[in-house]
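Example record for the data management plan.
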Amino acid sequence: MPSANLSGRVVLDVTGDDAEKFLQNLITTDLDDLDKGDLKPGALLSPQGKILFEFLVARTADGLLLDTLETSVSDLTKRLTLYKLRAKVQITVRPESVIRVSWGNESGASENDSSVHDRRFPDALNVRRHYGTEAAPTADETQWMALRIAHGVAEAPFDYALGDAFPHDVNLDQISGVSFKKGCFIGQEVVSRMQHRGTARRRVLIASGNANLPETGTAITANGRDIGTVGSVVGNAGLALVRIDRVKDAADAGTPILSGDTTLTLAIPPEHRFTFPVTTQEA
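Corresponding structural encoding:
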């Protein structure tokens, strides 16, 4: 069974009598739909609807855990503490934990390890996150990145910059990472307006190149015009955050889409429900 130890990730525990109510009123994920043993994506937004912090959220015996970026956990802790006020909530960084991911037909967890099902991926892949102190004997993050790319699963900082993307931009609406029915959360008005008006123009797509893709952050162009940037890359496959209206225009005109000297083909990730914009003529 393939597995990888994940670098740059840490666990933030949110516990206490008010933990769930506290987070439910702040983050994009609907915790009412979060089953025990499941892991779902989420974000804490700015009032303007941009993603300030991204994480994966799961239930624990004492509350909830947030699997998040090590580089932003200090700021996330401070931000949550500001919102806590008199709520009965404790926010602590879990020390010396190892986060391991596995996928395949089996997912054995040791006595010192707890695992949850990563719902960003199809059930058949059985992608699981393991939280404990035991590292995988053989670990290859490249295989993990290739799996993310194949299923269009974007993560900061590889595929977008925190503070610069809406949830729709990185397809959180496609993988149960943002709720449009649970009620208010920070940035909810902006995100709901984008959903109901269908105004999301940027999306993460899967990029295939006629050669190895250039490095993360390289511009993607059509007819000399910037339309996005390259994200995660493994060989000639990668993710791309692009303006889908401009991708459609290029495809309709037969204009090559390039990143450096590499010609790209861009596709909507499997199981995702959004489509390219419809032109007036097509309508």
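Summary line stored alongside the record: The first helix runs from residue 19 to 24.
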